[in-house]
Amino acid sequence: MDPTLDEFKSLVDLSLDRYLPKEPAWPERVHAAMRYSIFAGGKRIRPLLCLAAAHAAGGAAGRERALSFACAVELIHTFSLIHDDLPSMDDDDLRRGRPTCHKAFDEATAILAGDALQTLAFEIIATDPAGIENPALVLEALTVLARACGTAGLIGGQMDDLKYEGIPATPADLERIHRTKTGALIVATVVGGGLLAGGTPDRVTALRAFAEPIGLAFQIVDDILDVSGDAAALGKTPGKDAKSGKATWVALHGLEASKQRAADLHAQALEALHSFGSEASLLRDLASRIIHRVS
Amino acid sequence: MDPTLDEFKSLVDLSLDRYLPKEPAWPERVHAAMRYSIFAGGKRIRPLLCLAAAHAAGGAAGRERALSFACAVELIHTFSLIHDDLPSMDDDDLRRGRPTCHKAFDEATAILAGDALQTLAFEIIATDPAGIENPALVLEALTVLARACGTAGLIGGQMDDLKYEGIPATPADLERIHRTKTGALIVATVVGGGLLAGGTPDRVTALRAFAEPIGLAFQIVDDILDVSGDAAALGKTPGKDAKSGKATWVALHGLEASKQRAADLHAQALEALHSFGSEASLLRDLASRIIHRVS
Predict the structure, then answer these.
(1) Comparing A286 with A165, which gets the higher pLDDT?
(2) Which of A256, B34, B88, B149 is a good FRET partner for B272, with 20 to 30 A between their CA atoms?
């Protein structure tokens, strides 16, 4: 019988615990900060996407080969959240209802914890024992992740996100921000999972065609929740992005058009999986969760 | 005829220019900040060590295979300088006589430029075309660099460096700080160069035995220059570390004992190369430059 997404999540949480240095080990404080932010109640959407894509491309064996990559993506995601929350960036005090890393520790520790999570992401991909079978494939997946993380991906998206707090963004600017800041890592996690699972080029291409609309839709739903979400479910005060003058999909296109675009992108993503059978059921479930989530 | 260290430096500068995204490319501001800090008059000691080690282990062909790694180490070094200079860390306004990155740009841009340099380091190693011949070796070298950068290496060293601004460091604490914050990356650059050049295990072991004392000596010389160096040559005001209450070798052991220890470590490093002939001449020259430098 197929595993469930809940089983995937438990596996990811256990593996992250194994990959992260223990708190009592030197240097204790930065290890504590890394663990504080990694185990902060995240839904693990990105690692689940990775494992579901690997399952679709290569079954149970494929999934196993993608596990370290799935965890690495969560490390990169968490590193980006820690740095984005800093006073000189979005200056957020709370994330998921808890103090942000620099509030719980201090700014220097938060910067270094983010730096260390990035380093560790590349280290766990490069040292996965399963990689010995096909090191060239590991390098390919690692490159996919590095490019998604770099200035053409989430770092570029964050630069633009800050820039457009002060000046008006056009719809094209905003789509670029969403595709880089959020979409690129979602595409990388799906493509990397498919690659490491040994997916054929056709299957990996289909997975990319699934991930691109899902990545954009993910952020549009985030913007929708920022104006219509529930504070308790979100773990933060809704309306913050709108108030801070950040460009959002809802501000530029309105609530109804935003919901319609998310639904259209969802349909486009499902269509990209038309050649897959039940092996992509988990991936389809996840897409539905992403579109219909309330937090 | 053997190349000179000056030729190596020109090659590294040209290669860094090729690897770094161009300033006019989106996102312009972070690309400008990355280039500002990379082309800030650095002596390129770490890439030169990498290429000299590669030359010692594998001649001209070996050197070529280590070039991307040599540049990656410089990206990591520069990323760490940008983040260490931030107001919440060492709060430095000047580096090599020019405004630090966050002063020339702003804090958010400096944090993201550092982040992006780290990402790019791993990307250029993973995508080096020469890596196709032996991708497992590329993964091994990449792992060496990631470990030197992580919490067991320079990030851990920087955490400790900040911690011991407030409390007294024992000689053992200080040696750990110097070996992690400075030494680890120097060891990684030499070992990575030797590995990628196709060095035999014996040669790589000897290169490591050379790099460990040189890495520690490098930082001891830095501490010596902080109290006895010339402001114009250093591009910064000497005495800053001593004044800020930072633990330094000179403060704990005195100037004469510090000079003696640097000389002893230099001798130990040269002894580690006893099985090498003239192929290690450049590496010996570099060791001498590191010990006898005035800036």
Answers:
(1) A286
(2) B149
Residue range B179-183: average pLDDT? 97
pLDDT in tens, A169-178: 999 999 999 9
DSSP string, A200-246: -HHHHHHHHHHHHHHHHHHHHHHHHHHHH--HHHHTS-TTHHHHTT-
* ipTM summary value: 0.96
CA angle A105/A107/A112 to nearest 5° reads 90
> What is the rounded distance in angstroms from the CA atom of residue B122 to the CA atom of residue B100?
24
pTM here is: 0.97
How near does any CA of chain A get to the CA of B120, in Å? 7
Domain that holds residue B75: 5-292
CATH number at residue B257: 1.10.600.10
Q: Which residues pair with A99 in a beta bridge?
A: A94
- A83-111 tens-digit pLDDT: 999 999 999 999 989 999 999 999 999 99
Chain A residues whose beta carbon lies within 8 Å of the beta carbon of residue B79: 115
Element (H, E) at B275: none
CB < 8 Å from B in window 265-294 of A = none
In the stretch 56-95 of chain B, residues with CB closer than 8 A to chain A read 79, 83, 86, 88-89
Contact A112 B155 (CB under 8 A): yes
Interface membership of A160 toward B (CB under 8 Å): yes
pLDDT for residue B109: 98
Contact B123 A146 (CB under 8 A): yes
pLDDT at A245 over 80: no
- State the Cα–Cα distance between residues A290 and A119, nearest whole angstrom: 28
Reported residue count of chain B is: 295
pLDDT for the residue numbered B143: 98
